[in-house]
Fold 4-diphosphocytidyl-2C-methyl-D-erythritol synthase.
Amino acid sequence: MTDNEDQVAGLLLAAGGGRRLGGRPKALLEHRGRLLVEHAVATLRAAGCTRVHVVLGARADAVRRRAALDGCVLVDNPAWEQGMGTSLRAGLASLAGTGARAALVSLVDQPGIGPEAVARVRAAYRDETSLVSAAYAGVRGHPVLFGAAHWDGIAATATGDRGARAYLKEHEESVALVECGDVAQPYDIDTEADLVHLE
């Protein structure tokens, strides 16, 4: 097994404007004394990603000013209002030419998914043809790992809020599912009611 330390880059999608949260960007919500975007970066790092790219959109200036994101590559997505697909495309484009052979994609609004689950998905990386997804009771969820051989195909189909869903469905038989339901809770912070998950 080759050392995949630098071959798998962390890609954090943190551009959303929190439309259903009264326009509060999710990256700037607090959880356990720090911003969600900091929490998510720390999770990727703890899972072994030494290179982390963070896609910013809503109130990107405020996120840059307030969040401690030292050592991360910050990627601006001016089209963030068009949905998560644009962030995924911007993030994958930012990894081109870095030497990364896979992107481990996580979402800023899922603090219930910790380093253990992320590390499991990362450990399933084999080469740039890898397609890996966390699963919860057998149902595909996040994080997901995309080998570089898939980036162009994913970018071509990532539209609106669907991200890579269409691509993964089309390549279902190639996706390795890694069960994480025993170590993580895949809830999203989407609405006011979801704020109960934040501590």
